[in-house]
Amino acid sequence: MHRHCADNGTQGGLSARGKQPIINQSMSSNKQVYVYDTTLRDGTQGEGVSFTVNSKLRVAEKLDQFGIDYIEGGWPGSNPRDMGFFEEVRKLKLKHARIAAFGSTRRAGVPVSEDSQIRTLLDAETPVVTVFGKSWLLHVLEILRTTREENLTMIEDSVRHLVAQGREVVYDAEHFFDGYSDCAEYAMATLQAACRGGAGTLAMF
User: Fold this and answer.
1) What is the spatial distance between Cα 86 and Cα 103, in angstroms, rounded to a whole number?
2) Together in a domain, 139 and 205
3) 87: which of 9, 15, 52, 174 lies 20 to 30 Å off by Cα?
4) Which letter does DSSP use for residue 46 in this model?
5) What is the average pLDDT across 131-155?
């Protein structure tokens, strides 16, 4: 597949301010900093690190006591331990933190209402869902093996469906800055797709 940066009629494009990161209008005047902790997912990927369900629950309680705003609990469906955590964390009486489930957008060519990954995210019954999507055309064309237009639709469909089910959605723009360096217009279009779907927060790495 040929990768190039021409617009080719894709949805979105640049914001009125040019090549600037997009943030939700509701957050543009909000000076508060929100802390999103990934200890219970990223923190478990180190060599020799393994949390039991009970230990993950204890860590969540401590993070809540610290005043952390969002706690990413794991990837539902990736292993029984994460599913067990999501079942048990509902019973905790957290005073501040909101629990987030992490996962990907729907698969290419699969209606969002029929996608097993999206269904698993909803089954976790968390108030927040963090969903990641591809920002870099290289990954869209060579890893997902789909079109640039379909990837934008996957992002928008997934976010909109999750929001419609009452979830606060954090959109994780995977490899955004690599994608932006390669093709700024397309990387920005992926953020705009998430915004159209109703994402509450955009995360760019």
Assistant:
1) 14
2) yes
3) 174
4) S
5) 97
